[in-house]
Specification:
The protein is an alpha/beta fold. It is globular. The protein has 14 helices and 15 strands. Helices cover about 40% and strands about 15% of the residues. The strands form four sheets. It has a seven-stranded mixed β-sheet with strand order 3-9-8-7-6-4-5, sandwiched between helices. The structure holds pyridoxal-5'-phosphate.
């Protein structure tokens, strides 16, 4: 039985009748449950083991795994523990006892489909930091060549470029962007204006983790491409939240992870490099295929012994996500995120650091309450509602993420807690 069929059975999607979204009424389009269909989303919530007496609002750090993900991992761990003697090592990429030597074509094909790439353009990594470091370390830049980015990048995205600058004399330049951001045009203008004749690369978060701002990456990549500048996007916060289409975006490279919004086990990520740019990236973690260009994605995926059960969990998380449907997942995340923002914006003591333009927001809301530090607000949420958003430090309040395992009552209770402070 395929894992896809198992998920269908476990959720019971096949037996549920869905009201149609008004925008989805074209013939041939599958029926979609609306983002506020409580019965449907309760059924999805039941697929998670999350304790009922606590509320999880922090998949921006690490996600909650659906039960099917955990079951798949346990089953495979058990299989290895029991039957490892069956393994007559053949080096034929079909064995599933250890990862790191297998080309993982099945999983890479699923990942490629999710982001509209080819499997050969996908390497499996352990996280976003790996992928960003692979590109930073692997690309050839001369002393004085410039990489530009914003002043709101995550250390896992930017540190590889800092290291390169210190070691090789390249320039890593951060460009300040507002927080909150006001519009896509504003951010586009700031980034494009920062380009100089020395700029060889633009590295940006697709979605800024400290504000939830979705950057106008398609427009920036188009301009960079005209000028021959390599574009690298950090998608740590996007996969499993908003749709990614690397062809449409037009970037040269994109990294992401599955352990935040996709609900996969920790230690799962990917790196996409467009086929014609793969040759520009030297291997960083080198094993036997370090200089083998027959399957470029495999060159990076081969990175020494790793855990296959983790990959079984990862694959189950993709099947689960696809079974619900990426657009449906996004619609629910956005619906809950906007409900939270709309509710909190009515409170004059709440200051938002997420963008003012809703088209730049999805499931991440960053805000503070006048007179409180982020740690105090985080603590108040726990004390009053056993709710777990994440502090952003003294000034920036909390990052409050909404996902498909959350519901309207939790959002309304969170708003009531803030109003009571
Ligand atoms: C924008 C961004 N980049 C990179 C990272 C690091 O991700 P990972 O821990 O998967 O390496 C994070 C983690 O929160 C992030 O938000």
């Amino acid at each position: 039985m395929t894992s896809r069929r198992k998920v269908i059975q476990s959720i019971g999607l096949a037996t549920m009748a869905w009201p149609m979204l008004s925008t989805e009424s074209n013939a041939g389009t599958p029926p979609m449950p609306v983002a506020d269909d409580k019965e449907y989303w309760k059924k999805i919530r039941d697929q998670f083991s999350l304790a009922r007496d606590k509320v999880f609002f922090n998949p921006g750090t690490v996600g909650a795994m659906p039960k099917v993900v955990v079951d798949k991992m346990i089953a495979h761990l058990q299989y290895i523990a029991t039957d490892v003697a069956d393994w007559a090592y053949k080096d034929d990429n079909k064995e599933e006892f250890i990862s790191g030597y297998n080309n993982l074509m099945g999983i890479r094909t699923k990942v490629a489909k999710l982001i509209n790439a080819d499997a050969g353009e996908i390497a499996m990594t352990d996280n976003v930091t790996n992928g960003m470091s692979y590109v930073a370390n692997g690309i050839t830049l001369q002393p004085g060549d410039e990489v530009i980015t914003t002043d709101q990048e995550h250390s896992g995205g930017q540190s590889g470029f800092m290291l390169k600058a210190k070691r090789y004399g390249t320039i890593f330049r951060t460009v300040p962007i507002p927080k909150p951001a006001h519009s896509p045009q504003e951010l586009y203008d700031i980034i494009v204006k920062a380009i100089t004749p020395k700029t060889k690369m633009i590295m940006l978060s697709h979605m800024i983790s400290g504000s939830g701002a979705i950057l106008p990456v398609k427009e920036i990549c188009a301009e960079a491409s005209k000028r021959g500048i390599f574009t690298l996007l950090d998608g740590a916060q996007t996969l499993g939240q908003i749709r990614i289409d690397v062809r449409d975006i037009g970037c040269d490279a994109y990294t992401g992870c599955f352990h935040k919004w996709m609900g996969a086990p920790a230690g799962t990520g990917f790196m996409y490099v467009r086929a014609d740019r793969m040759k520009d990236i030297w291997t960083t973690v080198a094993s036997g295929r370090w200089d083998n260009h027959e399957d470029e994605g495999f060159r990076f995926t081969q990175r020494g012994t790793g855990s296959f059960p983790i990959l079984k969990g990862l694959e189950a998380s993709i099947d689960f996500h696809n079974e619900i449907g990426p657009d449906r997942v996004y619609a629910r995340i956005k619906f809950l995120g906007q409900r939270l923002r709309d509710g909190l914006r009515a409170n004059k003591k709440v200051k938002f650091y997420s963008p003012l333009d809703e088209s730049m927001c999805a499931g991440i809301s960053v805000y503070n309450v006048e007179g409180l530090t982020g740690a105090q607000l985080q603590e108040a949420y726990w004390a009053k509602g056993r709710m777990r958003p994440r502090s952003q430090g003294d000034k920036w309040g909390v990052r409050h993420c909404t996902h498909i395992f959350n519901n309207e009552d939790e959002i309304d209770k969170a708003i009531a807690i803030v109003n009571s402070l």
